[in-house]
Amino acid sequence: MTAFVLATANRDKAEEITSILSGAGSIELLPRPGWLGEVDETGSTLLDNARLKARAVSAATGMAAIADDTGLEVEALGGAPGVHSSRFAGDSASYADNVAKLLAELEGKSEASARRARFRTVAVAAWPDGREVIAEGEVKGTISLAPQGKLGFGYDPVFVPDNGGGTTYAEMDPAVKNRLSHRARAFTALASALRTEL
Q1: Are the C-beta atoms of residues 192 and 25 closer than 8 Å to each other?
Q2: Active-site annotation holds for 173
Q3: Domain boundary assignment for the chain
Q4: 12, 48, 69, 129: which is the annotated catalytic residue?
Q5: β-pairing verdict for 132-143 and 116-126
Q6: What is the chain's pLDDT, residue by residue, as a tens digit (198 residues)?
Q7: 2-197 has CATH 3.90.950.10 classification
């Protein structure tokens, strides 16, 4: 069993990642230390930001760390919000603020073909000696006309994955979402790669 510090400061994301990796067997996730400050996500790509967070937490704790960065990329918006997904409506934006801005940006585009999008996650495991393992996950889908469902977080109420039977992530049982989501794909791939690395 190898221990990794989970770098995310987002409680919702931490719970989801822990659930996804619960069956990985060889990976033990340790919570991010409360004394550790926020890591500025100054990268221009999802990989840049995931790597920044993993390396910073690994350096601060002296342990291996796991981090990710996730972006919602909407075709009609030229790939936005992308790397800025968590702060699309501003640095202190709530989930609802970001969803509202996204729907406002897509106002007048009612056809599903005009609301195509994909969710991408890049996950990085980093060690104090500089080693790292990278994995990615992607799910294509459509942005709904209005929020639907009460579960999940972030853009879950408006993202309808192609592989989800026509429901948003927020309408799915968490166990179902954690089998088919972009984050599930990234962390399942990371766990597989780590089994080889370890």
Answers
A1: no
A2: no
A3: 2-197
A4: 69
A5: antiparallel
A6: 689 999 988 889 999 999 988 876 678 899 998 898 888 888 899 999 999 999 999 999 999 999 999 999 999 999 999 999 999 999 889 999 999 999 999 999 999 899 999 999 999 999 999 999 999 999 999 999 999 999 999 999 999 999 999 999 999 999 999 999 999 999 999 999 988 876
A7: yes
